[in-house]
Amino acid sequence: MATQSAPIFDTDELVINMGPQHPSTHGVLRLVLKLDGERVVDCDTVMGYVHRGIEKLSENRDWTQIILLTDRMDYVAAATNNLGYCETVEKLLEVEVPRRARYIRTILAELQRIGSHCLWLGTHAMDIGAMTVLLYAFRERELVLDLFEEYCGARLTYNSMRIGGLPLDIPSGWDRKVREFCDVMEGKLPEYEELLTNNRIWLERTRGVGVISARDAIGLGLCGPPLRGSGVYRDVRKDEPYAAYDEFDFEIPLGTRGDTYDRYLIRLEEFRQSIRIIRQALDGLPEGPIMGKVPRLLKPKAGETYHAIESPKGELGYFIVSDGRATNPYRFRVRPPSFCNLQGLKPLIVGHLVADVVCLIGTIDIVLGEVDR
Amino acid sequence: MLDTFIIPLLKIVVLLNAILISVTFMVLMERKVIAWAQSRLGPMRVGPYGVLQAIVDPIKLILKEDITPVKADKMLFSLAPILSLVPALVAFAVVPFGGDELFYVADINVGLLFFLSVTSIGVYGIILAGWASNSKYPLLASLRASAQLISYEIAVTMTLVSLILTAGTLSMVGIVEAQLTDGVWYGFVQPVAFVLVLIGGLAETNRVPFDLPEAETELTGGFHTEYSGMRFSLFFLAEYANIIVISAVTAILFFGGWLRPFPNVEALAFLDLIPGWIWLFSKIFLFLYLFMWIRATLPRYRYDQLMRIGWKLLIPIALANIVVTGIVKVLV
Amino acid sequence: MTDDPKLAGSAPEGPAKPDAAADTPATPQPAAKSDAAAKPEAAAKKPAPKPKAPPEPPKGPEDPLPPDDLEPPAFLSALQQAYPDAVEQLSYWVGDWTVIVRSEALLDIATHLRDDDEASFDYCSDLTASDWPPREKRFDVIYCLYSTRRRHRVRIKVRAGEDDPVPSVTGLWPATNWLEREVWDMFGVKFFGHPDLRRILMPDGWQGHPQRKDYPLEGPGELLLESPMEWLRLRNLQDEAEIE
Hints:
The complex is a heterotrimer of chains A (373), B (332) and C (244). Chain B is mainly α.
């Protein structure tokens, strides 16, 4: 091998386009990788292939019509998107949401977290080559989709919340089915763990890969499991409680090393915590109305606010400006967690091998519909 | 005339057809086994329980348009799949499916050496495919393939040296007969060698967890990214033919080939009622199942980790195994 | 409606509050107290574009003043004391504090907010902008900050014109790299000192900045594909800038 100071042969870097059509970029993400052998020297992230101008559209839609647009952002976790938007508008309107509605919202949001994490787990494991986990995780995600279908009739884009409450009360027997699902899910988690957690190859592929320190993670604005994986105690559900999270008892798993394996463990633990929250919410589900007192014509007073919730991907924030005159927001801005986490991809992958790139795209859990909006 | 040409030719024709047909059914088996592992049903539409899928799949592949990229090296691009498939088929020449002369094409006295040499040619098909495609992902894949070849070829060959020491012959038929004489399957005499050959076999056939040159989720299909239609299916055939040949050789070297279990225990002589080739086929079948099982279970190793295992783990163990075998051989 | 916040105080809030829980009732109070220094400036900047035709677009955000009985958090008072000239106004609405600062002093203030122990805003949640075309400095650039140590939030707001770049804060919060790119892409607000100010969501060669209020909601659409001549005729009828 040539000495490092004076290579005998000319070396050249290989520029390779990963995506927009690539099985592991989870959508239409395009990475322009500069490779030295298989080692990534530089990376440029190109996105915008599914930019639909949701922010611009929303500024020209009715307040209620926007709920439907929020479904289309993080399409694997539509209910949490609905929740974040509705709560932001409720904050602007200063509307009190009935307790029952807040409980049901929490259940929906946590079911959604399980569904979204199932998709993440499956695709992440598939990227690393463990294909059975994909099928297992999708099997359970199917149950979540069934529950949503029974609740609101849709399986992907739910449009499941309204400003001030919920459009529908839970169907009879639905709570029992959710309980059954919780039991099933709890039983299936060890199956995933058996295939991955102590698997030597899985450990070698994820441990020490994509390490990011707490300081860098905060600076880069990472959120959700990637931030907690570095040991930062930050979860909007605890820090700035919304819906009914302040009434439940749950824990926020934290990582220590900030590597891919920690982020994996955190998400697995979040499955369990979500189940715990859902059970508590079902146990304490109060009776009462599901819709708050909302004026027929929504016209929040002039003002602006930023409100964040913890989506499965991280901090999902809505910044909305109302001019107090129109039935549409003057400015509608989404703080997409995938977008902000994706920004952390470059520092993570530089210096790693091509094989790790797909592993790291998986670990930050992006949905391109949300990145591009 | 009859003995030198006609009969060997007939054997070859029968063998080739048998391999190709078993490959198509093996694809079906793989799809079914993996589906069951993943709580799915697998192909169910074509024929009862999807059995005819094995016939429909190759037909589909053959009928697909065969695309040659404009900038590809045309000759090498066509040569690569052939170079990949032919060695896999040639290797069957020395695989005995039974003790009788009827069951093998040739019993050459360096059969094992022939097998090793021929199978290592196969990887050139992959390297050339990656190179000739003139595309970046296949190029990376062919780099990986060559690195993998070097790491694993040495380890496997070294390991087999210790087996040859035990058996005292290089002939495949001879090795099985040696197991009969010694009265034990060599898998129990040389367990370390067996595991090493199995790992090396996985790596040589580019199977999970060592499917780096293919690595669909990393390199979008690896060396065969640019291939389609018939040429793609040649790679496909080669991969599965390789798996069968590796399974067969492993069964022969370590599990007594066509011998029944405990070949020297008289009390079990009734097992001889089952013909030898059935014993061998069921052993091959078990290994094929093992390969599929592994594929359904394990994630993929990374390129540098695979190299590390090859050089730092397998080769030292193989060397130590030779030394130990030699000492034991001298002492006993 | 579009009263100058300085003059009218929080006038629009008082009467209309139909059935709100009103966790923080922003009682109408004439602005006088908290930022005497900033008041004349803001008033001077927008003297009299108030009585215009009703369907005019809003001239700017309300930026309601904090109610009198609400003390701003300690870090904001400290900030006001440290940079009396740079802090134009404090604003409070539905529980959120916003501090409006001059763009020249943005970097100083941002550094202060990040490094000051009371504030320690180490996490930049969001950076975005809003467009108020009639205003001279038409853009508000908004920084949503969060402190992972103190667990509080604040927003910084900077006013910027079209040819009036804002200092980039990427050196303070690397997270704002892409967010500033997005604001440039969507609004055309320039950031100086940004390491890599390219478009991020729109294609590189795109004309115009889609999130501006004067950018049309619909482009050429499918008509261009179906009958280009018809599209061209329609296009020539209108102002070119509206389509592009």
